[in-house]
Amino acid sequence: HIRIIEAIEDRDPYHVEQLVRDHALELARHVEKFVDYLD
Q1: Full-prediction pTM beyond 0.90?
Q2: Closest-CA residue to 1 (of 26, 20, 28, 27)
Q3: Which terminal residue of the chain, N or C, has fewer Cβ atoms less than 10 Å from its own Cβ?
Q4: Is residue 27 within 8 Å of 39, Cβ to Cβ?
Q5: What SS3 state is found at 19?
Q6: Structural domain of residue 25, as residue ranges?
Q7: Cβ-Cβ contacts under 8 Å for 15 (sequence gap 6 or more)
Q8: What's the CA gap between 39 and 37, in Å, rounded?
Q9: Is residue 26 in a domain?
């Protein structure tokens, strides 16, 4: 998360967008792999 915060502080919207997107996709992969109690 620190990299996202740093990109926000640097006012670099394109980098923020990339980092947030990558984070969301990693989270989705994690949920798909490990979370089975929501089915």
Answers
A1: no
A2: 20
A3: C
A4: no
A5: helix
A6: 2-34
A7: 7
A8: 6
A9: yes
């792999």: which residue's tokens?
A: 33
- In this structure, is residue 18 part of a structural domain? yes
Alpha-carbon separation of residue 16 from 9, 13, 26, 31, 33 (angstroms): 10, 5, 15, 22, 26
Task: Tell me whether residue 25 is in a domain.
Answer: yes
Q: Which two tokens stand for residue 15?
A: 């980098």
39 part of a folded domain: no
**How many distinct structural domains can be found in the chain?**
1
Single out the residue of 38, 3, 33 nearest to residue 19, CA to CA: 3
pLDDT digit string (tens) for 8-33?
A: 999 999 999 999 999 999 999 999 99
- Look up residue 18 and give its two tokens: 């990339």
Distance CA(5)–CA(39), nearest Å, equals: 33
